[in-house]
Structure formats: structure tokens, C-alpha cells
Amino acid sequence: MATHNDFGKKAEDLAVEYLQKNGYKILVRNFRFQKAEIDIIAEKDNVIIVAEVKARSTDAFMLPQEAVTKTKIKLIVSAANHYLEEFNRDQEVRFDIISVLPDEKRNLNIEHIENAFEAFDAN
């Protein structure tokens, strides 16, 4: 596996740990529907949290969360809708982004952006 894939997997693992420490119940990881993949689906306070994890080795070109494009949002929303139907979930859904970036000492920092986008942002 390529180094960037290892970094992405590590970032997702860190995001899961972060969410669990903050009271989120992880429902599923890497949920796939057609061309879409949701990194983490969690639940907290009876709300379904759809979390996109974005990791970068540097923010020199763009912040990790800036890599979530309209096309990516459409795919995530489509997959989220499918998840809700498939598992018969009738709950509020929130779309978050978890950004992972190393600091100058190479420690990985997590930024959790709640309500990063809405389903209608996909239009």
C-alpha cells in the first residue's frame, strides 16, 4: 500500500478515536454506495453524523477541508441517503469534516468541523 494510503488510514483511525472520546458511537466505517464512500458514520444525541476525513501532510497548497468539492459532497449525500434507506434510519443527519494535519513537530492535529456542509450544498 502506498505511503499516502497509510497516512489516510492513520488519519481515519485517529478520527474514530477522537469521535469515540467525544461521545460518538461509530456505526460504520468506509460505507460504500456506487462511486461514493463515507469515511465514518456515527451517532450522537440521536443524530446521524456523516464524517468525511481529510488528511494532508502539509497545508501549503490548501487546507484538507478545502478538498471537499461539490462533486464529493454530491457523492457523500447520495451515499448517506442510501444508508438511511438501507438501514431504515429516520433521524436528523449532520455532515462533518474531520481535518488531520501535522504540526511543525509532526504531531497530527485534528480539527472537527461540525455542519461543514448541508445536503442542499450538493446542488
From TrEMBL:
It comes from Chryseobacterium geocarposphaerae. PANTHER family: UPF0102 PROTEIN YRAN. InterPro entries: Restrct_endonuc-II-like (IPR011335), tRNA_endonuc-like_dom_sf (IPR011856), UPF0102_YraN-like (IPR003509). This is UPF0102 protein CLV73_2909. It comes from the Bacteria. GO terms for molecular function: endonuclease activity; nucleic acid binding. Keywords: Endonuclease, Hydrolase, Nuclease. Belongs to the UPF0102 family. HAMAP family: UPF0102.
